[in-house]
Amino acid sequence: MICLGIESTAHTFGIGIVTHDKILANVRDSYAPKEGGIHPREASEHHASVCDSVLKQALKKAKISLEQVDLVAFSNAPGIAHMLRVGAVFARTLSKVLKVPLVPVNHCIAHVEIGRRTVGCKDPVTLYVSGANTQIIAYQGGLYRIFAETLDMGVGNFIDTFARYAGIPFPGGPVIEKLAKKGKYVELPYSVKGMDVSFTGILTNLRNKLKTHRLEDLCYSMQEHVFAMLVEVSERALAHMQKNELLLTGGVASNSRLREMCKVMCKDRGAKFYVPKKEYCVDNGAMIAVLGLLMHDSGAKFKKKDYCINQRQRTDEVKVLWR
Ligand code: AMP
Ligand code: MG
């Protein structure tokens, strides 16, 4: 069975083509604003303008024709409505034309499932850190539950906003990581509230310190504080759930200091640490196809409203029938 997955929750329009044994294609085209943050209308226009060529490239890479597709999956939630709608319309059209079933997929769960499929962890606690999302997700009692999350902004957006204040263009994460290598420690707020984390206070503090401190020192200290917060709550989730695998994913998983901190924590408590290949950490269509296939195989049934986009769907609103 060949499943075609469409990702369009935020800045990336992606199409992945997968079978039960192989990931045949994973093609992406991402919108990057010239200045400022993501502009929803511009991003949706980007997605609408690249969807045909991304599809063509994916089919070519997979060496299949469109008619060979047996199943279409798309990320219907959570995300920004403008962009979600482009993917939803594209997916509905393909499924109608091809006369194949359509599967609506939760983007956050797809990040977990592509991790489980490609790196071989079985029952991980997932630290999912991206632009918009910061969640610690683990499976329990038929649901992917959120054990910790941000109370305000996603850690990637936090890093990008700090970068913007410092005059660094989007995406700021990779530049900040480089600058941090030349920095020294400055004390910042450390904001863990129960199991949750919060970034806006740290952002204001950093913004004020930009006038008086070296940028390199702020980049280094930002990483040390914020990543320690994420690792602290991840460790508590591992301990509470008595699980012994940590899966790090999302765009911020590219950061080598965050990986190092996760690795040290896991080693100390005898847990295994996993990070998928970069193309499967960032937003991508293959993960949507992987989860679409799992849901289809599990016999998941959908009502008309399930095919609608859902900007705010929570990870634990989806019944997990495939585990
Ligand atoms: P995503 O939303 O999953 O596509 O991830 C995008 C986010 O990852 C952006 O906020 C980037 O700034 C962030 N990011 C990418 N590379 C790095 C890095 N090396 N360090 C920190 N953040 C990063
Ligand atoms: Mg994502």
3D architecture notes:
This protein is α/β, with parallel strands linked by helices and about 325 residues long. The protein has two domains: about 5-110 and about 280-315, Nucleotidyltransferase, domain 5 (2-Layer Sandwich); about 115-280, 2-Layer Sandwich (Nucleotidyltransferase, domain 5), CATH 3.30.420.40. It is built from ten helices and twelve strands. It has helices at about 40-60, 80-100, 105-120, 155-165, 175-180, 200-210, 215-240, 255-270, 280, 285-295; strands at about 5, 10-20, 25-30, 70-75, 100-105, 125-130, 135-140, 145-150, 190-195, 195, 245-250, 270-275. The strands form three sheets. It has a five-stranded mixed sheet, sandwiched between helices. A five-stranded mixed sheet has the order 8-7-6-11-12, with helices on both faces. Strands 9-10 form a two-stranded antiparallel sheet. β11 (about 245-250), α8 (about 255-270) and β12 (about 270-275) form a beta-alpha-beta unit. The mean pLDDT is about 95. Bound molecules: adenosine monophosphate and magnesium ion (MG). Adenosine monophosphate binds next to α4 and α5. Adenosine monophosphate binds near residues 130, 159 and 172.
